[in-house]
Design goal:
Blueprint: E1 9-10, H1 13-24, E2 32-39, H2 45-58, E3 64-69, E4 72-77, E5 85-89, H3 96-108, E6 120-128, E7 131-139, H4 145-164, H5 177-187, H6 190-202, E8 224-230, H7 232-245, H8 249-265, E9 269-276, E10 293-300, H9 307-323, H10 329-335, E11 349-352, E12 366-372, E13 379-385, E14 392-398, H11 405-424, H12 459-469, E15 476-478, E16 481-483
Parallel strand pairs: 5-6, 11-13
Antiparallel strand pairs: 1-4, 2-7, 2-12, 3-4, 6-7, 8-14, 9-10, 13-14, 15-16
């Protein structure tokens, strides 16, 4: 009798968190991630499929399936790893892009069966003879945001080599098991002990997570989104303002989110969620899989806090988080007894994406369109370079169980207005002298020297915070007529 070799492996910390989340709600598609790459030029579809199947075969994370065992959840490569490439021609539609995106939305709403699979979808849309969309949707347990760039880069390399009639360069990918090996080595190291002591000490007296809305809700299959693209000139203005205040551009964006949360809620102990790559070794940096983490960024913010002080505190806080980023948020939740129920570790999430790779396909330029990074529990603000590295793309994603379209629109406009004020601020400007009201709403149009400075929020500031928090609530009723 032959003994069948066990090819299964335990899950990494990132995989475990996603496994249990999906098991709690098997029919929920909230844990899908997705993006599409727009190729500005003709594509040889047969050659593309050859390149894609080669790339997927090299990234062994795509073959994984996940099962529950007596020893806990485990992963193993599928015995039958056949999967389709959907070739969809929308070029004859009245609005080809809209038709492609409708197909994409339907696919993204499909919940994955972690034990069966495939846990991903590849589709190639013909939009026009010289315009194609390559769409990839994968369960977050297979890929994180950084992995999408690894896969796109390799697919571009393979397709371009085949199109040029050249030998395909050797695959740079390391097997996904390397992520598990790296994590095991980390958990057995002194660094793990030091990181745990750091995080548990930092949050020994952690406040309850503060958000822009009351209550909590499970992630929904789809989320609300509002996007804006700052011009190259505006982006340079932010960078220059941040440098003047003592930080970098992303520090200024995070500072604006913290200041806005403080101004709307009047809370002084602000905790934001900060996604990190959690890939520190060269092997991890070339391994498609999921390793990303979301850790808490804790900031003390008061009405008297100045713009300069806040941005410096953010810069120091971001360095601190990244220095200890390998410690899993799932472990920290257990350490702090925040597992289960509605207990949260952080409020809004600020996702700072540093990479803007848009690799060419056969010499044709591309544009990446980010669709979903996975579950949105509350509010997530995604910040990444615009197309071609020009400008800054900012997306506000919200859980529809907690926010309405109108509320999300208000928060986006007011937060960006506050960011604009900080970009013009002197380092000594206290947050109490910034305004939540938009131009045309009253106090925001008043001269700066007419706004009374106070160590704590005055009546006008409290009014602004309430108006920003519930802009559509009825404020005045008289003889049957109401005003918000």
């Amino acid at each position: 009798m032959s003994v069948q070799e066990d090819t299964s492996s335990p899950l990494t910390g990132a995989q475990q968190g996603l496994w249990f989340a999906q098991r709690l709600d098997p029919a929920n598609a909230a844990y899908n991630t997705a993006e599409y790459v727009e190729i500005h030029g003709p594509v040889d579809t047969a050659l593309f499929e050859t390149a894609l199947r080669r790339t997927v075969g090299e990234a062994d994370t795509f073959a994984l399936r996940f099962t529950d065992t007596a020893d806990g959840p485990r992963s193993a490569p599928a015995a039958d790893d056949d999967w389709p490439l959907h070739l969809v021609d929308v070029s004859g539609e009245a609005d080809p892009r809209a038709a492609a995106e409708a197909w994409i939305r339907a696919d993204m709403a499909t919940a994955a069966d972690l034990g069966e699979g495939p846990l991903f979808t590849h589709a190639l849309f013909t939009v026009a003879p010289d315009r194609f969309f390559w769409f990839l949707r994968a369960h977050h347990i297979l890929l994180d945001g950084y992995s999408y760039k690894l896969v796109a880069r390799r697919l571009s390399e393979v397709y371009t080599a085949l199109a040029d009639g050249r030998e395909v360069p050797r695959s740079p990918f390391a097997p996904v098991s390397r992520l598990l090996d790296e994590e095991a080595a980390y958990r057995a190291s002194d660094r793990f002990v030091r990181d745990r002591a750091h995080w548990t000490g930092r949050f020994a007296d952690a406040p309850g997570a503060t958000g822009l809305t009351e209550g909590t809700a499970p992630p929904a299959a789809s989320f609300l989104r509002r996007t804006t693209l700052l011009s190259a000139a505006d982006t340079e203005r932010l960078a220059a303002a941040a440098a003047r205040l003592g930080g970098a551009r992303n520090d200024l964006v995070v500072a604006a989110v913290a200041a806005y949360l403080h101004r709307v809620t009047a809370q002084r102990d602000i905790v934001l969620g900060l996604p990190t790559m959690s890939r520190l070794g060269s092997t991890a940096l070339r391994t498609p899989g999921t390793a990303s983490n979301i850790l808490p960024l804790r900031l003390a913010v008061t009405p008297a806090t100045t713009a300069g002080d806040l941005i410096k505190a953010v810069a120091a806080g971001l360095r601190d988080v990244r220095r200890h980023q390998q410690y899993r948020a799932e472990d920290l939740r257990r350490d702090l007894r925040l597992v289960g129920g509605a207990r949260r570790l952080y409020g809004p999430v600020v996702n700072l994406v540093p990479f803007d790779e848009e690799p060419p396909f056969g010499g044709h330029r591309t544009t990446s369109h980010h669709l979903s990074g996975g579950a949105v529990e509350d509010l997530q603000i995604n910040v990444r370079p615009g197309a071609g590295g020009e400008g800054l793309w900012i997306a506000f994603d919200a859980n529809p169980a907690l926010y309405t379209e109108a509320e999300l629109d208000d928060h986006q406009r007011r937060l960006l207005h506050l960011l604009d004020q900080l970009a013009e601020a002197d380092a000594t400007l206290p947050l109490a002298r910034t305004s939540l009201l938009l131009p045309g709403e009253g106090r925001a149009d008043a001269p700066a020297d007419s706004i009374r400075t106070a160590p704590d929020a005055d009546l006008a500031a409290r009014f602004e915070a309430r108006a920003a928090r519930t802009p559509h609530a009825v404020a005045v009723t008289c003889e049957g007529a109401s005003l918000t």
